[in-house]
Design a protein that fits this description.
The structure holds two protein chains of two kinds. By secondary structure, chain A is α+β, with helices and mostly antiparallel strands. Chain A is built from 14 helices and 15 strands. The longest helix of chain A is centred in the first third of the chain and has 39 residues. Chain B is α+β, with helices and mostly antiparallel strands. Chain B has a single domain, classed as Lipoprotein localisation LolA/LolB/LppX (outer membrane lipoprotein receptor (LolB), chain A, Clam). Chain B has four helices and 13 strands. In chain B, strand 12 and strand 13 form a beta hairpin. The radius of gyration of chain B is 21 Å and the shape is globular. The chains are: A alpha+beta, B alpha+beta. Chains A and B meet through strand 7, strand 8 and helix 6 of A and loops of B.
């Protein structure tokens, strides 16, 4: 402890050198803090947006085989939902949805849109994310044929609330079917994953797809805590298997994404020749797997850049410490003469280097965190731009965390200590008489 | 009595509500009218080229409003008796070498860029046009549809019998169809294709036929118009029709691969 006080006193013995090195540490810490803040913010933002738009903490999707063919989606959906509610507890929300991708025709124009069909009486998560410029949620909910389109979709067709659209799709069985939908709302949203979402009613889309009454595309379960998804999935798998369903987990991140986003697809031939319902249970982590990999890569690149910067600084650390030892030879000789061990002398120099690194990197991290917060508050971006997926209400989602800042500072301090060790050790080994009489 | 009336009214209301709710399900007659069946068999017999090998070149011209015409040329080798055909794209250069090969219920699309065969079902579009691959092959309407008479109509200058087809199962592209059969020779001159909800999706006009063998016909020109996307239509011309025997190897994946080399 006594050396700690001494080390603190010696931090700015050579102000210029200390400041030069310190600024380098601060810059590295600043960059790393900002990068990690971006990665964390992006992951959190994507996760939140996805959960609020098109994925549950737990998503049940799959296929069913009937009469020699395998169709996308599930049968016995009410039973699956009932089992899920029982197993996941009262705090969980279980929401069946029907997804369809179909062509829409109006006034000579056509476009393929992705429709999400929900039961408006229980599935109200979209309501708070939609800012209606025409119509309203209530009007849409009251009309079984009602659809709510984004402003971009409505602008493409040149339509508004009250207009009718022809929806035509190739149903799951192969036959074309059509329906007339009425636009009951035109909305804008900040949620990146909702920007192409055309909202319709579950029963309308199921009927359009010529699907049986107990069919659904997927069931989304929202738990009180996302961290419970893994354990919840295990309980649900067991319960569904006991009820006669075949269950599985997605084999890859891509399969998980496909499971939560796939609209009904044409049938395939059933090679097994027995009727059954095959369910895939995906957790949000699996769906986010690809996103997390990308963001992890971003962080890794950042860490690599930081490592390169630190390696450049390493030479500077080494030279600075050698100069420092050389300048303080008499001090070293005095300490050795009064009985301070060689290791303690070396340790003192290492401690000084580490403390310098720690203090400046903490300052750099703090500055980085403040810059992130300031940027988040001050800068807003257009919702439709290339940064859209990283935006939260038009602002870049940056989440600096104390833990990250502490870890970055500790890592830089350890790095500085490591590169300071060699010259410090040589300084500590100088004989007291030599230290007092000659230069190093 | 009052109770029966009330029950009937309630049932009628429920039925009306069910039918009016959102999208529709097809009406199913459940049986075939003998007169309609006879007409269908008659024209299918004329269009059934089983026993013949047919080679022909099709030119498809697709027109969309506001866009340049898209032209495709394909050569088709057909052997309906064996339920097989090979279709090879010849124009434009971007499509050259692509093709379809059908054997029974299996249809494969060959992509020369990746040299792979992609499995499709029989209802794939040819080059993303309105023309479906099930146009080439043995007709079998009564196997998939219930047929009923739907009156008469005049198409151009021809008096026609109208036969309505309703799908027995919903695995056909157009579950409801109306065929306008020319009274003189029983050949179809117009076909209206409807969705399961009976919305008109497409109309095909068989403008011209060619007799390839005694009592056997193949269409020489047809015009397909999209009912939902106004202004979109495809004109199909059938040229160079021959019935010379086709070498067996032309009905194989290897032949398709060879065409792209």
């Amino acid at each position: 402890m006594r050396y700690l006080g001494l080390a603190f006193k010696n931090l700015f013995r050579s102000p210029k050198r200390s400041l030069t090195l310190g600024v380098n540490y601060a810059i590295v810490a600043f960059v790393m803090t900002a990068l990690l803040a971006f990665a964390r913010g992006a992951a959190s933002n994507v996760s939140t947006s996805l959960v609020r738009a098109s994925a549950g903490h737990l998503t049940v999707s799959g296929q069913y085989a009937a009469s020699g063919r395998v169709y996308g989606g599930m049968l016995r959906a009410p039973e699956v939902a009932s089992i899920a509610r029982r197993e996941l507890g009262e705090g969980a929300q279980v929401l069946p949805r029907y997804l369809v991708r179909s062509a829409v025709y109006k006034g000579g124009l056509s476009k393929r849109l992705s429709f999400t069909g929900i039961d408006a009486s229980i599935d109200r998560g979209f309501e708070t994310q939609m800012r209606f410029s025409q119509g309203s949620w209530a009007e849409w909910a009251a009309d079984p044929n009602g659809v709510a389109l984004t402003e971009a979709q409505a602008a493409y067709f040149g339509i508004g609330a009250g207009d009718e659209l022809v929806i035509s799709l190739r149903s799951r069985f192969g036959a074309f079917n059509t329906g007339i939908a009425r636009v009951r709302g035109v909305y804008a949203t900040d949620n990146y994953f909702m920007r192409d979402l055309a909202l319709a009613h579950f029963a309308f889309l199921r009927g359009l797809d010529l699907a049986p009454e107990d069919a659904a595309t997927a069931i989304y379960a929202y738990l009180p805590r996302a961290s419970e998804a893994g354990a919840a999935r295990e309980r649900l798998e067991a319960a569904l298997a006991a009820a006669g369903f075949e269950t599985s987990r997605p084999a890859s991140d891509a399969e998980a994404i496909s499971a939560v986003s796939a609209a009904s697809i044409r049938y395939e031939t059933d090679k097994e020749g027995r009727d059954r319902v095959m369910l895939t249970l995906s957790t949000l982590d699996e769906v986010l797997g690809l996103v997390r990999s990308v963001l992890g890569a971003v962080s890794a690149v950042g860490a690599l850049v930081a490592a390169v910067m630190l390696l450049v600084i390493a030479a500077s650390i080494f030279i600075n410490l050698r100069m420092s030892v050389n300048e303080r030879l008499r001090e070293i000789g005095t300490m050795r003469a009064i009985g301070v061990e060689s290791s303690a002398v070396s340790g003192l120099f290492v401690l000084e280097a580490a403390l310098l690194a720690l203090s400046f990197s903490l300052a750099g991290s703090a500055l980085g965190a403040l810059a992130c917060l300031a940027f988040r508050l001050a800068a807003s971006f257009p919702p439709g731009g290339s940064l859209a997926v990283f935006l939260d209400a038009g602002r870049l989602a940056l989440e600096p965390r104390l833990g990250d800042m502490a870890a970055i500072s500790a890592a830089i301090a350890a790095f500085a200590a490591a590169f300071a060790w060699l010259p410090a050790r040589r300084g500590g080994r100088v004989a007291p008489v030599e230290a007092l009489n000659s230069a190093f | 009595m009052v109770r029966v009336v009330r029950f009937s009214m309630a049932a009628a209301l429920l039925l009306g509500a069910a039918l009016g709710l959102g999208a529709q399900s097809p009406a199913k007659p459940g049986k075939t009218d003998p007169a309609a069946a006879e007409l269908v068999r008659a024209f299918e017999a004329k269009l059934d080229l089983a026993g013949l090998d047919v080679t022909n070149d099709f030119t498809l011209v697709q027109k969309k409003e506001g866009e340049a015409d898209r032209v495709l040329r394909v050569r088709v080798y057909r052997r309906d008796a064996a339920e097989t055909f090979t279709l090879v794209f010849q124009y434009p250069d971007s499509e050259r070498g692509k093709g379809y090969w059908r054997s029974g219920a299996d249809l494969y699309l060959y992509l020369p860029s990746t040299r792979e065969f992609v499995y499709r079902n029989r209802k794939d579009d040819v080059g993303s046009t309105d023309i479906r691959t099930d146009l080439f092959g043995r007709p079998d309407a009564l196997g998939q549809f219930w047929a009923t008479m739907a009156g008469t109509a005049k198409v151009a200058s021809w008096e026609c019998d109208v036969v309505r087809l309703d799908a027995k199962k919903l695995d056909v592209s157009y579950p409801v169809q109306k065929w306008y059969l020319r009274r003189g020779d029983g050949l179809p001159v117009k076909v209206e294709n409807f969705s399961a909800g009976e919305t008109l999706l497409r109309t095909v006009y068989y403008v011209e036929y060619k007799e390839v063998a005694k009592g056997k016909f193949i269409f020489a020109k047809l015009l397909s118009t999209d009912a939902l996307e106004k202004g979109r239509r495809t004109l199909l011309s059938n040229e160079g029709i021959t019935t010379a025997r086709i070498a067996d190897y032309k009905f194989s994946k290897a032949f398709l691969e060879e065409q792209s080399r």
